[in-house]
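Bench notes, afternoon.
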Amino acid sequence: MRKLIYLLLLFSFTIISGLWQPAFAQGSFTLKGRVLDSKGNTLPGATVKVEGTTQGVMADASGSFSITLKAPSTLVVSFTGMATRSVSVTSATKTIDVTLSDNGRNLNEVVVVGYGTQKRADITGSVTTVPKARLSQLPVTNVLQALEGAVAGVNITTTSSVPGSQPTTLLRGQNSINASSSPFVVVDGIPLSKTGGSLNDINPNDIASMEILKDASAAAIYGTNASNGVILITTKRGTTGKAVIRYTGYGGFENLAHVLEPRDPASFTQKYLDYLSQNNLKQQFTEPVYNSGERANYAAGRTVDWMKEVTQQGYMQDHNLSVSGGTPDVKYYVSGDYLKQKGVVKGYQYNRVSIRSNLDINVTNYLTVGTSAFITNNNYDGGRANLLFATAMSPYGSVYNTDGTYMIYPQAPEQLYTNPLLGLTTSVINRSVNLVGNGYGEIKFGGFLKGLRYRLNVGYNYLPTRYNSYSGRLANTPLGSATARNEETRSYTIDNLLYYTKDIGKHHIDITGLYGAQQRNYFVSGLTGTGFINDELTFNQIGVASTVSGASVNGSFSGSYADRYALNYQMGRAVYSYDQRYVITVTGRRDGSSVFGANTSKYGFFPSAALAWNISNESFLQNSKIVNNLKLRGSYGSAGNEAISVYQTITTDGTVRFPFNGVSNVGVQASNLGNANLHWESTKQANIGVDFSVLKNRISGTIDAYNSNTSGLLLKRSLPAITGYANVWDNLGKTNNKGLEVTLTTRNIQGDDFRWESNIVYATNKNKIVDLYGDKQSDLGNRWFIGQPISVIYDYKMVGVWQKGEDPSKQDPTAKPGDLKFADLNGDGKITPDDRTVLGQTTPKWTGGLTNTFHYKALSLSVFIQTAQGALRNNADYNYADEAGRRNTPAEIGYWTPTNGSQEFQSLSYTNTRGYGYPHDASYTRLKDITLSYNLPTSLISKWGISSLNVYASGRNLKTWTNWIGWDPEQTYYTRGSGDYVNNYPLTRTIVLGLNVSLK
């Protein structure tokens, strides 16, 4: 909080120093111009008015306008959802481009909320509109990547930079322990979550707006899907006017943002010699290396840069073409997009092709129909190099055999690691297609039913995926192994919506009713074959393998699996406002889910209520020269979490193959122990917020504080092994989650030619476990502790390294110089498991972001810095156990020797028998992105038939400041044999050049 206060004081000073208005010259003239957004796209329908008069014009379909002025004037330019801008013009001004930035504070702005829209003045819950500048000009494949650190209370983490991977998202902290904590995603009113699709399927260029529902009042309208927040995405649609053709595209390069370099040859051999010395071993060979495959290369002076062998120059390009327009009765938007990404590690790539068509038709004056359809093809094909193995290899190993094939064991006869390039010899097809067709029909009633509307939303998703792989002899699979797996997900959504809106004097009523249903059907089948006479057929004819069996699907070897999920729901919402000052919202939703047990109701009810007071509309503030907008909000409500997979309430068995009388037979073994009493996890949340804007909107912002309590946690309870089951789902325990969110926008300097705007976001979150099993006792085995955050580091407290001359006998009798030294926390004079303690939490204690945007005429520069502070993570790079000193290690990771007396690193003879996790501070501050853009003048491009042309350069993940030693403090990096270690992939730095063009 102290850092936030320093930032506020700094920007308050710059704001005060920037409060000035330039003078004008005299004259009369005709002015032509365009209205643009920060991306350079024109804004058809923007309003241009002369300040202090009723004179004004509206920008046409190409965003252009013409106005005749009798004297030097101040033009007030506005557009829905953008910050209104005042521009001074004189007779010397012939043409002008006016660029509007995002506002998010306009009380008349229409904001998308659950199942409809509301004016921002009528919003009572915590709803955040994502700045439109974050949705454009950034080289991202998934729109969530653009939001990292930019939205308060939304914790987005890039755990892997594998092309086409998705970041993890957490809204307002973690409420649940075992159940999913991912937010619910809705696109154009139809859920994307739980359909098998992902935000990788949504082209960022197609997104018109993005809202995030945070508190229970805003999100509870989605009932059982809402406990982790809701992300609403609205795609672009057509507007009245002639066709507008737009092209947006970029291309550029990717590199590793930080390279954790292995030791060079000299350091590698010295480490091996030190290992022998510290373990009292004799050097067996003249050369200071272990394996015969290394000795020849050492003698000849031949070395291999394994990092260079497995990495390459990455690149990324994206091309998007769209056409939009229409008549008053028919509006259309059609776009196509092609994205290609070549990874920085060999073999990694991602291709995406998507096509979208949005159509709106006024059939009659009371009937409107429309569609939102898209198809996306994702391609992740290809075998991949192994970065983990590359960092471990000896620099004196060999890459190739004499025949040019990859040497399987580069350090022969050492078989600890295989060649990191072997994955490139495998054949892999990994693709998915998401075909989505959404339609709606809306009837507006007249007469005494005026204000009543009925809307039918229907959505259908079809998502087939294909995965084929073959590993042959060149990949160290002597018999050959093939897998072919096909998945298919079909889902539909039907929503019946009834709206009623009525104004009676100063009273406004808005009522929404909903009855709907969702269903998802999933099927997967696969085959595995081993034993091929050669590698020619790969996975194309698995039947010729000597052994053919069902592929592992859903944790079994049956070869096929199917499940079905269904949800029925009803919802009612009423919004009442008086004189645009007092607003109350009441919502109730009832959900029935197929995932819950037969012994309990499958239905749950989730109510919420919220109040808002637009204080700035009170008479005592209407003429205020300081306060432009001030609104207080308060809400309380409940939401549910059903985030477990289907069939957890029923007991099921799995299949297993076993030999009997020399014949392979299929048997049955215990699989899942069902709980027929399973029901919703419920979260109740209170939220208090304030929205404000002062000093002629020079400073605006939002502050929210929340406190939520979750009960009936969907928790996996461990069972004795004698039962035949490892665990069972149950409704147990309670958690508490609270935090503070601050968003501040400052317009520091507002001149005609130069403008400087800043945006600050700050969020702090703290969760804790209140109870687990009803006895207020912690669960040591799962590292769950009463009163502590859900995810913590529980370990010994390291206080240094034992040195020569120190006597560890009274505290740690088996310790020797170079071993880690731990604190005796319980004071019993020895180091035991009782000395372990909670050292910290794995999630940041607070996050923040600072965006500075500078405009000079048609030139704009945006600089965004993000930070995450207070996270503690185990660092596996500090510990390489049981590898006999023969693997390479990072150059940044030192080791203790009698001469250096390190107090940070262990000796090469140390054995980590206590399972110490090496926790280290994972805080960081990152220069996340910089974008420089320029809007070319109308006088130059109009003769080319172009209405707007914006060029830009953008860099992402440019610099990170951290004390973390490793690839990146944010990334999940697995050790050999754990997790998805074959796909370790560090953070990448991307620099692109792009342009946005609109044709007349």
